[in-house]
Structure formats: C-alpha cells, structure tokens
UniProtKB/TrEMBL annotation:
InterPro entries recorded: KH_dom-like_a/b (IPR015946), OsmC/Ohr_fam (IPR003718), OsmC/Ohrsf (IPR036102)
Name by which UniProt lists this protein: Osmotically inducible protein C
Amino acid sequence: MKFYLKDSGMRIDLDYGELSISGNEDYGYRPFQLMVASIVGCSGSVFRKILEKQRTEIEDLTITAEVERNPKEANRIESISLHYAVKGYHLSKEKLYKNLELSRKNCSMIRSVESSITIEESLETIELSR
C-alpha cells in the first residue's frame, strides 16, 4: 500500500477508489473512524458469512459502534461497544450469540487490537413473521 501526502492529510488510491485521510473531517476520513469502520466491517462480514453457512434467514443486520477515547493519551481508543441488531426469521438469540463469539475469533481486525482496545458486543433480535 502506498500513501501520498496531500494538503491536509494523506491519500491512497485503491481499486475501489481514492481514500482521503485527515485529522480534520473537512478533508477526509479521520483515522479513528477508519479504525472503527475496519473493526465493524470485518466483524459484520464474518458474522454474516457464519449466518449464511448455517442458513439463518436474516433480512437485515445493523451494527452501532460507541467509541470511548482517552484525551489524556493522544485521544487513544480505549473501548468500542458494538451493538448488533439482527432482523430475520426464526432467530435463536442463543445461537446468534454463539455465532457472534465465533465471528470474533475469526475477525482479523478484532484479533489485531484485542490486547489494546476493549471490545464489547451486545445483540438484539427483531423477529419477522411471514
């Protein structure tokens, strides 16, 4: 990966497009946003794959992230609380929690930061009927 200096940050050209990174939201994504997005994106993708393999019927999955930062330590990310809202049919909360644990074990982004950032997960189910 090759990053380039720009007026107010850095940029990288990726297959999907250009990504601008800056400490100022007016000029690009803030680094902490990208960190949280990487964790959520990885976790959500792995969780979804596990659900698909087990043929769990979901209509929608949303993940809300709450981030706690420490201003005394360069605004270091201390913890991230992830709340998964799963909308689907015949959902077993127990089975979903087991799948969530499995996805955590297989998410490279969570595994990369788990010794330095506390990551908590919660789950809610929204049962649909046909």
